[in-house]
Amino acid sequence: MTRAKRMLVDVRPLRVGEFRRLWVAGIVTGLGAQLTAIVVPLQIYEISGSSADVGLAGLVGLVPMAAAALWGGALADLRDRRRVLLMTTIGIGGTSLLLWAQAWADLRSVGVLFVLVAVQQALFGANSTVGRAVTPRLVPPELLPAANALQSTVLLAAGIAGPLLAGGLMPVVGSRTLYLADAVAVCATVWAVWRLPALPPYGGGELRKGGVLRQIGDGVRLVTRRQVLLLVYVADFAALSLGLPTALFPQLAAETFRPSDIGVLYAAVSAGGVLAGLFSGAFTRVGRHGVAVAVSVGVWGAAVAGFGLSGTLVPAVAWLVLAGGALLALGVFRKTVLQTAVPDGMRGRLQGIDTVVAVGGPRVGTLLHGTVCAALGVTWTVTAGGVLTVAAALLLLVLFPRFRRAGGRGGAPGALADLLAEVGEEVHTVTMSPTTAAPRGPGAARSLPVRRAGALRRSAGTARPPRRTPR
Asked: 0.85 exceeded by the pTM?
């Protein structure tokens, strides 16, 4: 493979039929979800004429999403993940139908919209958590960074194309049609999930003692005991809380740039992420995932600091594009560490905690930036946040050698046997997922618990192991 081709997005995960169907369906469903995300605040403002109600709608779904993410993660470790993913996906589509119904009935009720938004955000929190726990069961560990890059690129691209599509269609077809289009788009993901094989927990997870709350507690204890996992969450939270200046974009557009430039500022971050996704082959083959997380945080912080010091639009956009690329890389390596550092029976719970951190970080950042800006001014607030983010990345690399070693050449962060001993889940030592087992040596075979993965095994240069049925 030439160096130029290696820099382009790694599409090898798309050779796995199950992952490819989910990815393609995600393109359609992502666009549909953006239609609803744009129409709901427009409808709320049309009914109430209050921007405060629009802002409140964003907070209404926060607690349900966080709670459902933790619940969905625990459920993913106890039940068939295909079934949980299917039910939550159908629920999201059903909520879009209810949004269409209230628009068709012309209820003009902000309260009804708040309830539907809370329900849909809760379903989305559980669905996204389970979906990220499914991915490691579909592709081998060495391709997880590439798979995560493909999925993140689709989400960012939908975040750019969806609002543009909604803005163009809204005056023509109205809100009811856009709600209905979202509900129809969800059918693509329902079909893709329906085609998945059964994904029951390894080791008889359905028979474990303790309910969902106890399973969530086990996940939290695991994170607090494992330094690598805890530091990954700390790195992500530092980047999203200290260095995410989107709350100050309106003030920057009014004072430093032009009011009409605010859309460009928001789009630049997403555009940088999409651009990095298209050339993600340049970094998805990196083995040291802990170092990659810290470097991504550092680049993000440096770009934000550069943006804060920019006095004109062109360099400001360039810095935001770089920041968006670093943010995509951070997401790719963060997900990869969390997906490969633990046995399959713990993945759902860690993804649930990850969703809470990803949702809570920007909210804390909004509060911090707004408060500090009132004292220091917008330029120093943005720049200082970026500098503090860089400092956090350097501290992670300097103070924690185990974090620097996370990943190694094989791409498996941490010592899994040590992890299981600390957690006390000895059952996983004999029922561990093939995708999380440590390689037995150079060229050791890795089995995929999915059908029709032969082409992928051959492309990775591994032998075809005998088919096994997980017990």
From this structure: no
